[in-house]
Amino acid sequence: MTALFALNLLDSGVQLSMLCAALGLVFAFILITVVIRASPGNERMRQISAAVQEGAKAYLNRQVITISSIAVVIFVLLLIFKDHGFHSGSATAIGFVIGAFCSLSAGYIGMRIAVIANVRTTQAATHTIAAALRMAFNGGAVTGLLVVGLALLAVSIFYVIAGHIVGHAAAVRSLVGLALGASLISVFARLGGGIYTKAADVGADLVGKIEQGFEEDDPRNPATIADNVGDNVGDCAGMAADVFETYAVSLIGAILVGTLTLASEPAAIVYPFVLGGISVLGAILGVLFVNVAKGRPANMLMGAVGMSALVSAILFWPATHYLFPAGVNVGGVVRSPTQLYFASVIGLVMTAVVVVITNYYTSMHYRPVQKIARASETGHATNIIAGLAVGQHATALPVGFIGIAILLSFHFAGLYGIAIAVMSMLSMAGIIISLDSFGPITDNAGGVAVMSNLPKEVRGVTDQLDAVGNTMKAVTKGYAIASAGLAALVLFGSYVEELRDHVTSRGEVFSFQFSLTEPKVIIGLFIGGLLPFIFTAFSMDAVGKAAGAVVREVRRQLQAKPGILTGQDTPEYGTCVDIVTKAALREMIVPALLPLIFVITVSIIKPLGPVVLGGLLVGTIVTGLFVAIAMTSSGGAWDNAKKFIEEGNLGGKGSFAHAAAITGDTVGDPYKDTAGPAINPMIKVVNIVAILIIPIFF
Amino acid sequence: MTALFALNLLDSGVQLSMLCAALGLVFAFILITVVIRASPGNERMRQISAAVQEGAKAYLNRQVITISSIAVVIFVLLLIFKDHGFHSGSATAIGFVIGAFCSLSAGYIGMRIAVIANVRTTQAATHTIAAALRMAFNGGAVTGLLVVGLALLAVSIFYVIAGHIVGHAAAVRSLVGLALGASLISVFARLGGGIYTKAADVGADLVGKIEQGFEEDDPRNPATIADNVGDNVGDCAGMAADVFETYAVSLIGAILVGTLTLASEPAAIVYPFVLGGISVLGAILGVLFVNVAKGRPANMLMGAVGMSALVSAILFWPATHYLFPAGVNVGGVVRSPTQLYFASVIGLVMTAVVVVITNYYTSMHYRPVQKIARASETGHATNIIAGLAVGQHATALPVGFIGIAILLSFHFAGLYGIAIAVMSMLSMAGIIISLDSFGPITDNAGGVAVMSNLPKEVRGVTDQLDAVGNTMKAVTKGYAIASAGLAALVLFGSYVEELRDHVTSRGEVFSFQFSLTEPKVIIGLFIGGLLPFIFTAFSMDAVGKAAGAVVREVRRQLQAKPGILTGQDTPEYGTCVDIVTKAALREMIVPALLPLIFVITVSIIKPLGPVVLGGLLVGTIVTGLFVAIAMTSSGGAWDNAKKFIEEGNLGGKGSFAHAAAITGDTVGDPYKDTAGPAINPMIKVVNIVAILIIPIFF
Q: N or C: which end of chain B has fewer CB within 10 A?
């Protein structure tokens, strides 16, 4: 009877979340109709938009081919090793393909919508700023809702079907395959897109702004279309794949922890699905809020986040009490539904906390950014020193709050409590990505305005929105890395539990010690701690190399066709797009494979083994969190320090301080848009691969 | 009988090391005579040298007063808490005073010798490069031998006397007080000197080179004397205090581990003393080698290191076999003398490995520096990106080898093996500091040459030596941080053992778990991991603020006395010296107190406690190692990339690439000379304070 109720609960809970996910998708399609129906502007605007669209599609198609060939190799490896241990049959391999496919699709969709919304935002900006804001936000919201809906549906459908075929326990474990597919593809998408966007941006700036004195988006700059394509393939497609992955992995991590530590409690499996489902409703209400509210752009966007969080916080309460009427036994202690509810609220609070903190460090209205701006008055070097210092300072509060969140959520419900807090934090992804995608859409809208020779006021409107978008982008990066760090910790917990399961299933005693007094753990921490440092070093090198290729091509074109400078000749935008595409795809391979190489090498070398690997996982999370926060914060702060000066402060555009601020902004580009955010999926890939290889090597 | 033999062995071994230390001191005094007897050049040279000397003395005197007042507070605190637990009586407090005094003295001596040697090196450079090399090297060797001799003598005399008064066990523990004194003062000296030297350097460059187009060391620049003072108080005094501290702490750490884990074996206590004593002999032979050999400067210096290491490696063998004829029981397993010997050789090999690796990443003859130089051709931003990436890449090999060293030395003799490897590595400090102090002496010698209007050829000679000195400085920084990381790990091991001792001495069961599966450990790793990030952020801010004060003063002087520019008026060098002195002493306080604040806060907050503190200690070591290596390597590489261009490559001086390279060099200044190296003593202070507070808080 209890078992039947439990099964019903399991089914109905998951079904409920599927329903919410479907609702989110339906709402996204309504928004798509709204966006598409809007006017795409005049002939010239449509031409430019089409060129950007074409470049983005061309890049993503080639990225799909490159990544797919790597995915096929891993799929085959998973099939070969399918009989090793617990990853029942081919389910893991199939999960991998589904995860990879969905992650790629999320990126693809994000990009497609953005290139449709950008020109329509420009057109709306010819009317009012409110109209432009809504157009850009609705475009972003499509991505947000699609990513969340897709992730929730993919995981739940796979879980239900696999559960029917291979049984519940095996289905949960084969979800790790889905997580790997999502994460691995997301590393490639983040890196490939990140290298593309910054190589094009830096390359266009170096030769365009510095050598030729072009303005941003000057149509005479042969790299300008590539630069605009970059916003879409990096900030939209890369970010969408990244957050899809974090969402899916957090959900799967929570299910895994629920299964490993609370095996007898189906509600523990359903709970993360339900949290995800509820927050889709919250996101929809948030999106509606922006479409009806009036006020300053930044306030409206923040209001939407607040609204979503409030709806979730209210609905989590009855859901938790319904699922756990008598609480749940975690590690021998019964936790009340209220305790579990608190764990879920911690995730919502963390979202708010991270948003506020990142905003402080990267918005031009506060001291850190203004300090960088003032340091620019004494030159390039002091601008850089100040920016680097701000990034390092910016790590303190987020890491402190992450520590408090871990302590509290563990206090409420052990490792499961942490997993619930993470899932609850990620459940906000729908509305958060809406804010994030808003940024590149307005950025592109500005580009279209300049290249179509629209009146200066139009660019003024998009510039205002772009400044808001910059802060939103920085804020969501803080959100992405904080949630990624927490999700990775849950995965590390799962690694240890899986290892225990694996060893005891052989009838042996689990004797592995992950104590800091064990030199192997220290060595693991060192090896893992190294990974983010060289991963980001390779990523920055990659941007440098790809940007160099752009610089050479732009110089070649300007020399071959001197008429470009006078506007008589049209630059060959296509060759620049082509060069960045090839360079980005070539350069992403080495850094993207680093996490795989590290984990497998440590597993193969016998004197190292599972304990060193455990240390490695934690080491990567610890330094990864700091490096990622420092890089994304520095980058955001440099960007807005430049904007602060461009608004007429400290000498304004063209001043000595402005030149120094441009240097900082350029250094910040690969920091905040390539290396820093690529750490998010990287630290999860490391942990997921470690879980997957347990039965193969140990 | 055995006990008596053991006691004799203990005494005679320590006496032998005292003898070697005394020999080192005698040899240092001979070198002092040699240096002082050399000609100090003409009237003008002596005047400039006197001005630098006076500024350095004035700064150090005030630094001594500031630091002493903090030391008095801590001394009183140690006396107040003397009855808490094991730190028997006032011995710990007295040890603290001795450690603090010796650390200050080491810095003071290093500075005094350097300001005597600098003008004599200039004078020697008017004859031959070989004479100048020897003068600068002998000046550096005085510091090297004094530091090592002083450390060995201070620890052994204190240990012997305290042993007679409070007994062996209490004496060993009160050595922790000595370690605290040495480390804490060294943090202040490193930071104060580091802020001073780079604030003066950056300030002088910003307003002198960039605004006025002065050359380096132009006597019209009011900050130029302050800049030259900085080399002495930062690179000489700061470095001497730092390495004195690492040496003393490594020795004490090895004694502590020997006592805690091998309590019944007096030879285990004597062994680290003997290793230290033997290497003093090696250092003396190395110094003699430079004074008789002929060849390229870099080769002669490297030859001296090789010679010292070889002598130590040969003499360690009979010493080990004499002390441990039947091996020693470590953790229940008998380790042969050969195994212990191998552990000691690991330290020597690590020295060589770190020297070679750092040289690769920071010398202008290899790819990394040349990559930065080439990146300068596309501007300031690409120079910075390339330099940051090189620094991050440079962490991989040292950390990898540290991992191997830990694994091997632990394999040979457990935690004691690691302690021995560290002590053996530090025993090379005598010769290594000789190389390091060589750098600032030649740097100053060049300054004296320019300011005294000596012929260009003299500056040519000092410039050649300065380039060698730059690489040597970078190399010794790699050595300092690698050995500091290893020494800190030994201290962490001691922390756990002391904690165990403390808990079990109350009759309780030691139940603390430092497992990575424990959230408190993870939180500790996060808090500790944060420390190097914000410590360096505050340090860089401090340099920025102090440099700003210099810029304002220089601008004021040039405005008030326009005759300075034409050479009719003499600048007021003294006010610049005074301003930097005040700024450096004010700005060093906050970052220097951070490690204390972190450890004590975590200890006081009850839900955190000893397990979080354990995680904190390791977290600080892990991220500290990476941050320090990345910062010092980037800084060294930027510096030499500029030098590479100044040698006429890629457009040479005055080119666009050169301007970008100057930006990199300036960013690198606080990286490599303030923030990066100050991490070394910081990670040890954290660990030592943790050991000391166990009986107070837990």
A: N
Per-residue pLDDT tens digits for B300-343: 998 999 999 999 999 999 999 999 998 888 878 889 999 999 99
Instruction: State whether residue B523 sits within 8 Å of chain A by CB.
Output: yes
| Of the partner residues A388, A406, A536, the one whose CB lies closest to the CB of residue B540 | A388
Give residue for tokens 């960013």: B667
Nearest to B446 by CA among B111, B48, B37, B34: B48
Closest CA to A435 of A542, A324, A359, A376: A359
Torsion angle defined by CA atoms of residues B619, B620, B624 and B627, in that order, rounded to the nearest 10 degrees: 60
Q: Which residue of B has its CA nearest to A385?
A: B667
- Strand, helix or coil at A497? helix
Tell me the nearest-neighbour CA distance from B559 into chain A, angstroms: 17
Query: How large is the ipTM?
Result: 0.94
For CA atoms B650, B655, B659, B665, the dihedral sign is: positive
Residue A502 class from Cβ within 10 Å (0-12 exposed, 13-18 middle, 19+ buried)?
Answer: middle
- Report CB contact under 8 Å: A516, B202: no
* Helix (H) / strand (E) containing B238: none
Question: Backbone phi, then psi, for B93, in 5-degree steps?
Answer: -65, -40
Q: Look-up: residue for tokens 């410039």?
A: B463
How many other C-beta atoms can be found within 10 angstroms of the C-beta atom of residue B46? Answer: 16
Instruction: Determine if residue A17 is left, alpha or beta; phi over 0 gives left, psi from -120 to 50 gives alpha, anything else beta.
Output: alpha
Two tokens, residue A675: 């290396």
Cβ contact (<8 Å) for B534 and A392? yes
Residues A565, A566, A570, A576: what is their CA dihedral angle, to the nearest 10 degrees?
10
pLDDT in tens, A33-81: 999 999 999 999 998 888 888 888 888 888 889 889 989 998 998 888 8
Q: Give the mean model confidence (pLDDT) for residues A399-409.
A: 95
Residue B618 contacts A, CB cutoff 8 Å: yes
Provide the greatest CA pair distance for chain A: 83
Asked if residue A651 has pLDDT above 80, the reply is yes
Across A145-154, A229-238, B34-43, least confident range: A229-238
pTM of the model: 0.94
The pLDDT value given to residue B9: 65
B contacts of A529 (beta carbons < 8 Å): 399, 622-623, 625-626
Distance of CA B547 to the CA centre of its chain: 23
B487 class by beta-carbon count within 10 Å (0-12 exposed, 13-18 middle, 19+ buried)? buried
CB contacts < 8 A (A, B): 213
| Cβ-based neighbours of A583, under 8 Å, separated by 6 or more | A195, A199, A545, A546, A549, A550
Task: State yes or no: pLDDT of A98 exceeds 90.
Answer: yes
The answer to whether residues B316 and B324 touch, using CB atoms and an 8 Å cutoff, is no
Name the closest residue on chain B to residue A394, using Cα atoms.
B534
- Please list the residues that pair with B330 across neighbouring strands: B333
Q: How far is CA B122 from the centre of its chain?
A: 26
The 10 Å Cβ neighbour count of residue B84 is 13
Strands B328-330 and A328-330: unpaired
